[in-house]
Amino acid sequence: MRAALLALSLLLALAAPAAAEVKSVRLYADRSFGFFVGDLVNVRLEIIADSASRLQTASLPRPGALDYWLDLRDVHVREQPVGGGLTRWDIELVYQLFYVALDVRNLQIPPFPLRFLREGDSEIARAPAWTIGVSPLREVLPARRDNPTDYMRADRGVAQGDAAAPAARAGVFAALAIGALALVAHDRGWPPFHRRRARVFAAAARRIAALTKRNDESSRRAALLALHRAIDESAGRRIFAEDIDAFLSEHAEFASVKVPLGRFFNSSRALFFGVGDAGVEVAATELLALAKTLAALERSAG
What we know:
Layout: E1 22-29, E2 40-50, E3 54-55, E4 64-67, E5 70-83, E6 86-97, E7 105-109, E8 112-118, E9 121-127, E10 130-134, H1 164-188, H2 200-212, H3 217-235, H4 244-250, H5 258-272, H6 284-300
Antiparallel strand pairs: 1-2, 2-6, 3-8, 4-5, 5-6, 7-10, 8-9
Helix pairs in contact: 2-3, 2-6
């Protein structure tokens, strides 16, 4: 017996000789009493039979009205081998009661047959009838009251809400939304932040990232030129290698990349003019990293 289920368990001896392959039929229910009109009644029918037997699903009860006071709402079947050449069928049944009881009484859930086939022979396993106890929702003869409405319980009171709280929360969320919109507008340069200095290194970093994917000589030249143009635009004039100190004195936010900038200008001079340190060549990844660092410093400076 399953400990989680209450004690309605019936083991039927199968009457017909043809049912010899069906070993047992058991019925489990959550409880057998205390039901009211409208309640759902859950029951599980367990059938153990020879694994060569097959349950004919057409013999299962169909959901619908079984009586004026009883509906079958759902039927679900699970099949599982249990060893020893046996198979267990678990048939979950959900009934609903519509019996309006005026007193406590027992009602019988009707039995039904199930057909099994084995090697061309059919066997009938019969689900047993079982009894449940139903109870009335109210007493039959309550104490007399002068006002008919006194027979009804008063409605439960409605909790009083705080009308100010939703308005306060709406104000907080509106302020957060406006703040978030202002941050996005500042980052994207939308009005009224459209007069902010253009983030030339951010654009150059995106351009260089696209060029380095091509990994050829023309792309490398174009990437170097993109960073040159960004430096020129940031300074407001042409910047050459000998102008780095002056550029950094005017734009102290880039002072931390003085050494990488020097390598960049030496590499550029070697590539475009054939002068400078021939062994200095800035790799594509190093060039992209320098552009991203300049973009980050530019963004931090506002």
